[in-house]
């Protein structure tokens, strides 16, 4: 039981390049989330998905797109990376709806945009 | 608007020196108050969920308590391995999203 896994762990991009961050969970959770964490700003929600086939914007969605590929997988795409997107990205999942809304986090992806 | 504020930003303790971390919040209707631990370079690790004022939960040297305005994370006789950033998160009944505080960085010196 791996919980929430994320790939890659580290990534360096040049401004304007694109990339996709992958997330998978093996807990049969319904909801999945993407956050970014920046020094002094805490965790901020980018997008979330309450079920397969649905996605909704969070607090800071601009510059990102997401895909809920199936119940297990939720990807985050940067179409044209900008230095302001340098951050640590965390994926999380929870049972909600149909269970508790406690969120369980992956190990993170550290992204640097030059 | 639902809000959460953590204090202090950083706390240094000697091994065995007990203390408390504070999480103040405002919410129209509380769905849950969550505590997480985050080690450097890792994702947040779930510790506790508190649902109503007066509720308390314990795990080893940690005890979380909840009032209508604040939650405290009490650390009794801490050890160096308790050094980490502790995050609280607020869940309001207007949304199933969580609002995270900016955390308290705890350093316990031997």
Task: Provide a descriptive summary of the structure in words.
The complex is a heterodimer of chains A (114) and B (110). Chain A has 114 residues and is mainly β. Chain A is built from no helices and eleven strands. In chain A, the strands form two sheets. In chain A, strands 2, 4, 5, 6, 9, 10 and 11 form a seven-stranded mixed beta sheet that branches. The radius of gyration of chain A is 13 Å and the shape is globular. In chain A, 34% of the residues are buried. Chain B is mainly beta and 110 residues long. Chain B has no helices and eleven strands. In chain B, strands 2, 4, 5, 9, 10 and 11 form a six-stranded mixed beta sheet that branches. In chain B, strands 1-3-8-7-6 form a five-stranded antiparallel beta sheet, with no helix packed on it. The radius of gyration of chain B is 13 Å and the shape is globular.
Summarize this structure as a short list of keywords or feature phrases:
heterodimer; A: 114 residues; mainly beta; 7-stranded mixed β-sheet; 4-stranded antiparallel β-sheet; 0% helix; globular; B: 110 residues; 6-stranded mixed β-sheet; 5-stranded antiparallel β-sheet
Instruction: Round the mean pLDDT of chain B to the nearest integer and report it.
Output: 95
Structural class of chain A: mainly beta
Count of helical regions of chain B: 0
Measured as a percent range, the helix fraction of chain B is under 10%
Determine the number of helices of chain A (DSSP H or I, runs of at least 4 residues).
0
**How would you sum up the global shape of chain A?**
globular
Strand content of chain B: over 45%
Largest sheet of chain A: 7 strands, mixed
Strands of chain A, count: 11
What is the multimeric organization of the chains shown? Answer: heterodimer
Shape of chain B: globular
Helix-residue proportion of chain A: under 10%
Give me the secondary-structure topology.
The complex is a heterodimer of chains A (114) and B (110).
Chain A: E1 4-7, E2 10-13, E3 19-25, E4 31-38, E5 42-51, E6 54-57, E7 64-68, E8 74-78, E9 87-94, E10 104-105, E11 109-113
Parallel strand pairs in A: 2-11
Antiparallel strand pairs in A: 1-3, 3-8, 4-5, 4-9, 5-6, 7-8, 9-10, 9-11
Chain B: E1 3-7, E2 10-14, E3 19-26, E4 30-38, E5 45-50, E6 56-59, E7 62-66, E8 70-75, E9 84-92, E10 98-100, E11 104-109
Parallel strand pairs in B: 2-11
Antiparallel strand pairs in B: 1-3, 3-8, 4-5, 4-9, 6-7, 7-8, 9-10, 9-11
């Amino acid at each position: 039981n791996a919980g929430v896994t994320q790939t890659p762990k580290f990534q360096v991009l040049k401004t304007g390049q694109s990339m996709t961050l992958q997330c998978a969970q093996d807990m049969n959770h319904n909801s999945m989330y993407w956050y970014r964490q920046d020094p002094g700003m805490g965790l901020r929600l980018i997008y979330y998905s309450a079920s397969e086939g649905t996605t909704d914007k969070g607090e800071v969605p601009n510059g990102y797109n997401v895909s809920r590929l199936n119940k297990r997988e939720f990807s985050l795409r940067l179409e044209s990376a900008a230095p302001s997107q340098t951050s640590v990205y965390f994926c999380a999942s929870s049972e909600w709806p149909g269970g508790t809304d406690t969120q369980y986090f992956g190990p993170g992806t550290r992204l640097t945009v030059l | 608007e639902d809000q959460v504020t953590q204090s202090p930003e950083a706390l240094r303790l000697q091994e065995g020196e007990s203390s408390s971390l504070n999480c103040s919040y405002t919410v129209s209707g509380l769905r849950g108050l969550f505590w997480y631990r985050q080690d450097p370079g890792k994702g947040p690790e779930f510790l506790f969920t508190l649902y109503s004022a007066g509720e308390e939960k314990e795990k080893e040297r940690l005890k979380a308590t909840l009032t209508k305005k604040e939650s405290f994370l009490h650390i009794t006789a801490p050890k160096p391995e308790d050094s980490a950033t502790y995050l609280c998160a607020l869940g309001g009944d207007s949304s199933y999203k969580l609002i995270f505080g900016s955390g308290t960085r705890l350093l316990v010196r031997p």
